[in-house]
Amino acid sequence: MYTVIKRMEISASHSLKLSYPSKCEKLHGHNWIITVYCRSKELDENGMVVDFTHIKQAVEKQLDHNNLNDILPFNPTAENIACWICNQVPHCFKVEVKESEGNTAIYEKD
Prior knowledge:
- Its EC number is 4.-.-.-.
- The structure is a single chain.
- This protein has helices at 52-63, 68-71, 78-88, and strands spanning 2-14, 28-40, 66-67, 92-100, 103-108.
- By secondary structure, it is an alpha+beta fold.
- The relative contact order is 0.22.
């Protein structure tokens, strides 16, 4: 089994729609640290699980320096963002989204 891991940092803003009062309902930003894990039993014709550049393009090109509420069709919590990223990248099985030093959400496919 082959595994590749791509870690990247993006800057993006969001506001959350919550069922309780919270300061996170106001527009605010993070320097998100995103780690994408991809796995495959076989390598492609280029000898890769997935090109690191393709992972970067799938994440950074779409999310970096954007208001996530404007581009994502769901409440942009770290948990929802992790799941969305996992579904954007081929062979992805796990994504970690860290919105601050103490706050990380992890999504893993079963």
